[in-house]
Design brief:
The protein has 331 residues and is an alpha/beta fold. The chain has eleven helices and nine strands. The chain is globular, with a radius of gyration of 19 Å.
Length: 331
């Protein structure tokens, strides 16, 4: 059975605060644990007034501390922003506090603009082309130390925190396959290369100590409600947010809009149509059909569900109904 998990950006809705968003993330994770979700991931973004998960490892500790069984992790850490040793120490600490529950997904994008990247790193001499080398170095710090090893991650060494490679292009698929790591593709916002990336990853996969066979997780947008009309209305918040980001004007999550879509230009309509290929919007029955078709088409081992809704209670309900879809698919 395909596993279901959650990617939460800790969205800051208009009129609310970062504190509200962080508390809502924990509330959602606790509910998701009861609904049987496999894992709960948060993502690193910086200088984004609508996203509260910038201090990703800190938020993971908060969520892991407030739950007991669900896996918690990063989807992901943008490794070019950090020293591999620092990330090894952070996630080694998390793994020591919450054993066998911490995941570490790694991306090579900065997760922000160039000026903020400079503020994060103090220098832009770091190169995204170093990403494979940095992943290998990070993996090394999580292994048992070798005799005479001068630099160790403490905590971290020997924790064997499982690594994932994240991607929205063919590059991540190739790297994940070469390193024998699970691959999470960001089809929820960049579906164009999804099928090609899956094929490359599966065809090129080389087994590793962490993973014997290829494992594919795909991002999938969901918005479920009691009626299709209500789901489409609620979904308009995240669609507005997506378009605002593409227009270069990111902001806080806007409220849903009944008239949304009437004044979009053809390019914007095309972008949203492409998103719909990796989305399920409607009732348990209609989304169940969409998900079934998607899983058959992709062979996904796991879906990472994304549902950014303006009202927290509606977001909880959407994920609760999505859990019902999983039960329906398992029958």
């Amino acid at each position: 059975m395909t596993k279901f998990s959650i990617l939460d950006l800790s969205p800051i809705a208009q009129g609310s605060s970062a504190a509200d968003a962080l508390h809502h993330s924990l509330d959602l994770a606790q509910a998701a644990e009861g609904w049987g979700y496999e894992r709960f991931w948060v993502a690193e973004h910086h200088n984004m007034i609508g996203i509260a998960s910038a201090a990703t490892s800190v938020l993971i500790g908060y969520i892991a501390g407030g739950t007991s069984t669900i896996r918690v992790g990063a989807g992901g850490i943008m490794l070019p922003n950090h020293s591999p040793l620092v990330i090894a120490e952070q996630f080694g600490t998390l793994a020591s506090l919450y054993p066998n529950r911490i995941d570490l997904g790694l991306g090579r994008a900065p997760g922000t603009d160039q000026e903020t990247s400079h503020a994060l790193r103090r220098s832009l001499r770091g190169n995204v082309d170093d990403f494979p080398k940095d992943v290998v170095e990070l993996h090394h710090y999580f292994q048992e130390p070798k005799p005479g090893q001068r630099v160790r991650a403490v905590p971290g060494a020997g924790t064997n925190v499982p690594l994932w490679i994240l991607g929205s292009s063919l590059y991540g698929a190739q790297l994940a396959a070469m390193l024998g790591l699970p691959f999470a593709f960001a089809s929820h916002f960049a579906p164009a290369d999804m099928m090609a990336a899956i094929q490359i990853y599966r065809d090129s996969f080389e087994p590793s100590n962490q993973l014997a066979e290829p494992y594919v997780m795909l991002g999938y947008n969901v918005c479920l409600a009691n009626t299709v009309e209500e789901a489409q209305y609620l979904r308009s918040s995240s669609l507005q947010s997506f378009l605002n980001l593409r227009r270069g004007n990111p902001g806080q999550l806007p409220p849903p809009e009944k008239s949304f879509g009437k004044n979009l230009n053809p390019q914007e309509q095309a972008m949203l149509a492409q998103l719909s290929t990796c989305s399920g919007v409607g009732t348990v029955e209609t989304v169940g059909k969409s998900m079934t078709d998607f899983i058959k088409r992709t062979g996904a081992d796991e879906l990472m569900l994304v549902s950014s809704l303006f009202h927290h209670e509606k977001r909880l309900r959407s994920y609760e109904l999505a859990a019902n879809v999983r039960e329906m698919l398992s029958c």
